[in-house]
Amino acid sequence: MTALLEIKQHLKIFYSRYDIYLIPAMKFLFALLAFLTMNSQIGFMEKVASPAVSLLLALLCSFLPVNLMAVFGGILLCAHAYALSLETFAVVAGILFIMYAIYFRLAPEHGYVLMLTPMMFFFRIPYAMPLVLGLVGGPVCAVPVACGTICYYLMYYMKNNEKMLSSSEAEQMSAKLLYLVENVLNNKDMLLTILVLAVTLMVVYAIRKMSMDYSWYLAICVGAVINVVLYLIGGLVMNISVSIGAVVLGTLAALLIALVVEFFVLSVDYSRTEYTQFEDDEYYYYVKAVPKMSIAVSDKKVKKINSRNRTGRKRH
């Protein structure tokens, strides 16, 4: 534990010294990974799917506000949808317009969450989002998580129905639009996932806010159990085939990620908890103070000393 605390303290010191360089670099790497992942999944428009485009957009995102990263991601999604068909573009653009209007109205400061959620789906660990955001965020984070889930299922539907969406058969545009809207918005898997992630996030947040000891650990464990149970119940109620093994393994990986986040964000020493109380003219105050784990990092400085030969003295 001491070694881990030393690493944590060194990272905090390093970040505080070089944050002016680290923040743009992290934004660049995050945006580059997000755009490359998107283009690798639905690279229907070859010019837009070029790594050079992803690199240029990532460079812009490193200096621009984080919400523009989500805007660029939506533009890429629309471009790939247009490469399939005009009907697909119309449906995707309409859904993104409504979704972004809700997002920018309710949670505009959580652009990272909106971009990270589809990536976690591609990495098979979307269950980490409600566990981590319940610890470090709040209920409002359910909005960008839901929007990111919708983006993932849009890409998933486009990827798995490429031939049908790009077919040029003579059929009415209204019929094709209706088919697209019905299969995208009435997707039971997507609705179940949004519901489970939102409820899990709320449960983790509610337990984390309690004043009991080890509330963060309890929130992580209860959230992981709630996530699995809700998927089981939802699959039975909505008549959806749920891969229990994938859900359990993904939840275990999410639990480990949440524990790592807890260590770097909270990491308190409950054995040194202190209680105090005081009052003013209107209220009595009861305060519980739990100190964070910390360790003094020694700042080692090595001095080079040049030895002199004192035996050979000059004779006058």
Structural features, described:
- This protein is mainly alpha-helical.
- The chain has helices at residues 2-41, 51-61, 67-84, 86-106, 111-122, 128-136, 142-160, 162-165, 173-185, 188-208, 215-237, 244-265; strands spanning 274-279, 284-289.
- Strands 1-2 form a two-stranded antiparallel ribbon.
- Helix 3 (67-84) packs antiparallel against helix 4 and helix 4 packs antiparallel against helix 7 (142-160).
- The radius of gyration is 26 Å and the shape is globular.
- The model has no long low-confidence stretch (mean pLDDT 86).
Helices and strands in order:
Blueprint (H helix, E strand, L loop, with lengths): L1 H40 L9 H11 L5 H18 L1 H21 L4 H12 L5 H9 L5 H19 L1 H4 L7 H13 L2 H21 L6 H23 L6 H22 L8 E6 L4 E6 L27
Antiparallel strand pairs: 1-2
Helix pairs in contact: 1-2, 1-3, 1-5, 3-4, 3-5, 4-7, 4-9, 5-7, 6-10, 6-11, 6-12, 7-10, 10-11, 11-12
Q: Helical residue percent?
A: 55-70%
Number of helices: 12
Uncertain spans, ≥5 residues at pLDDT below 50? none
Structural class, please? mainly alpha
- List the secondary-structure elements in sequence, H or E: HHHHHHHHHHHHEE
| Gap from first CA to last CA | 63 Å
Provide mean pLDDT, rounded. 86
Radius of gyration: 26 Å
* Number of extended strands: 2
**Order of strands in the sheet with the most strands?**
1-2
User: What amount of the residues lies in strands?
Assistant: under 5%
From the spread of the alpha carbons, the general shape counts as globular
Main beta sheet, described? 2 strands, antiparallel
